[in-house]
């Protein structure tokens, strides 16, 4: 062994090994680069090279907090965990309920809770079993991503509650599932996977962000996020599917898909569909407000005639929520994220911007309060103007929900911190008006899930 280790090696052999090694490194780097750019060149060999190059990142992630479910944040050291009354809040000052959706760090799983805002008490909890939910799924599109289809990671994103106490739920990129009040699945729609918001129109149909499989004759290279508008009936049947990229191209907006000479696999990133429920001076019942994150666009689309009625990019940036306030105003939850080449980050704080169709003006009434309270979520998040003029804001990735008055003072808040000290992510909560919430409480009190 000693003779082998200390044997003399001719210089030309060392040079040959160095040359072969250098060529191997160049080939390896080329395979990784091609794979990063979406090329399928070299097939499994290219995939293996890419996987090997990612090994240091995998090892790095193993040493860091699991960002799929929680964030460690020193921003909230002075804020109590769970529900609390804020700067000017007090018991009985708030009306209504919150359908709170979150990752429960103590249970290490997602939960949905109905919270009475008058006393911050949880009046009902749903604990759907993910394996039981997915057991009713009979077929899936080939592009279904199952990475987060496990109990610790499956969030119930923007759950919708029914008058019988049941829920319609999904995760990002998962089937749509309807449950009863005991969280037992009733049906699943899985011919497409869905993400982001769940909203209901005037006819009782769901409008959802869908990601169907690419068509066989598609021009797009894979992967491509084929964002579509899906209308699904209340009993789980597809009513309508609209390919958003085709809408942009057919109506002369192809440049919005690829504004630079570079292929982008997610050029629109549709994240909210808000149905118009009644006619107004600027829209009609059945129209849809759409939020497109990547181009920072809010648009008004009419499915019945395939028309883009209005489109505006900015001043909102990478927004995630659009709501109709009255017959001439909308609100936009702007994440205000920027990327200067060193990663995406929030610039100062998020904003809720009010756009007035009657005069084209944009106002930001809570801007200074948002900065004072350091409200930020890099991705996701929503805001809802409540009937009494208060504002509910969810910092989804920061694990905090706040209810503020017209002047920006905090009336109540929830911090999703567990006993381990970590702040866990939220999952798009929803405000429930008092009369609706009171009726739900009466129904849920009669539910027996043990019988």
Give an overview of the whole structure.
- There is one protein chain.
- This protein is of the alpha+beta class and 451 residues long.
- The chain has two domains: 11-57, no CATH class; 74-445, 6 Propeller (Neuraminidase), CATH 2.120.10.
- Helix content is 19%, strand content 32%.
- It has nine helices and 28 strands.
- The chain has helices at residues 2-5, 11-36, 43-53, 55-63, 130-134, 244-250, 254-257, 367-372, 434-445; strands at 70-71, 82-85, 97-104, 109-116, 121-126, 160-161, 167-169, 174-179, 185-200, 206-211, 228-232, 238-243, 270-275, 288-292, 297-302, 307-313, 321-324, 329-334, 337-339, 344-346, 351-356, 362-363, 382-385, 391-395, 400-404, 410-415, 423-424, 430-432.
- The chain has a seven-stranded antiparallel β-sheet with strand order 6-7-8-9-10-11-12.
- A hairpin with a 5-residue loop joins strand 11 and strand 12.
- The longest helix has 26 residues, at 11-36.
- The chain starts with a helix and ends in a 6-residue tail after the last helix.
- Mean pLDDT is 89; it is low at 60-64.
- The chain crosses the membrane at residues 12-34.
- Pfam families: Arylsulfotran_2 (PF14269).
């Amino acid at each position: 062994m000693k003779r082998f280790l200390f044997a003399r090696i001719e210089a030309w052999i060392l040079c040959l090994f160095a040359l072969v090694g250098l060529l191997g490194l160049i080939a390896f780097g080329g395979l990784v680069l091609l794979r990063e750019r979406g090329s399928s060149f070299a097939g499994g060999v290219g995939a293996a090279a890419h996987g090997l190059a990612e090994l240091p990142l995998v090892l790095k992630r193993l040493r860091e907090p699991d960002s799929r479910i929680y964030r460690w944040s020193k921003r909230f050291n002075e804020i109590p965990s769970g529900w609390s009354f804020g700067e000017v809040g007090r018991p009985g000052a708030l009306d209504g309920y919150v359908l709170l959706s979150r990752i429960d760090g103590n249970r290490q799983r997602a939960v949905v809770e109905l919270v009475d805002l008058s006393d911050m008490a949880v009046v009902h909890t749903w604990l759907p079993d993910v394996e039981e939910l997915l057991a009713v799924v009979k077929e899936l599109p080939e592009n279904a991503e199952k990475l987060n289809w496990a109990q610790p990671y499956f969030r119930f994103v923007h759950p919708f509650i029914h008058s019988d106490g049941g829920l319609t739920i999904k995760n990002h990129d998962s089937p749509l599932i309807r449950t009863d009040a005991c969280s037992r699945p009733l049906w699943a729609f899985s011919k497409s996977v869905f993400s982001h918001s769940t909203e209901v129109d005037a006819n009782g149909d769901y409008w959802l962000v869908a990601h169907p499989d690419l068509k066989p004759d598609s021009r797009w290279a894979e992967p491509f996020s084929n964002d579509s508008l899906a209308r699904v009936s209340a009993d789980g049947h597809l009513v309508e599917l609209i390919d958003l990229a085709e809408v942009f191209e057919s109506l002369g907006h192809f440049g919005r898909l690829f504004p630079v000479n570079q292929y982008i696999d997610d050029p629109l990133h549709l994240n909210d569909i808000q149905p118009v429920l009644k006619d107004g001076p600027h829209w009609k019942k059945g129209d849809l407000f759409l939020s497109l994150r990547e181009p920072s666009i809010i648009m008004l689309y009419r499915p019945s005639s395939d028309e883009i009625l209005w489109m505006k990019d900015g001043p909102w940036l990478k927004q995630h929520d659009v709501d109709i306030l009255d017959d001439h105003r909308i609100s936009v939850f702007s994440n205000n994220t920027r990327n200067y080449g060193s990663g995406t980050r929030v610039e100062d704080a998020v904003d809720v911007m009010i756009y007035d169709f009657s005069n084209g003006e944009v106002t930001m009434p809570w801007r200074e309060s948002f900065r004072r309270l350091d409200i930020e979520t890099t991705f996701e998040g929503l805001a809802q103007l409540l009937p009494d003029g208060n504002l509910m804001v969810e910092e989804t990735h920061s694990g905090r929900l706040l209810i503020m008055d017209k002047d920006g003072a905090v009336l109540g808040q929830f911090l999703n911190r567990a006993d381990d000290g970590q702040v866990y992510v939220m999952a798009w909560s929803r405000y429930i008006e008092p009369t609706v919430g009171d009726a739900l409480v009466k129904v849920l009190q009669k539910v027996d899930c043990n019988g």
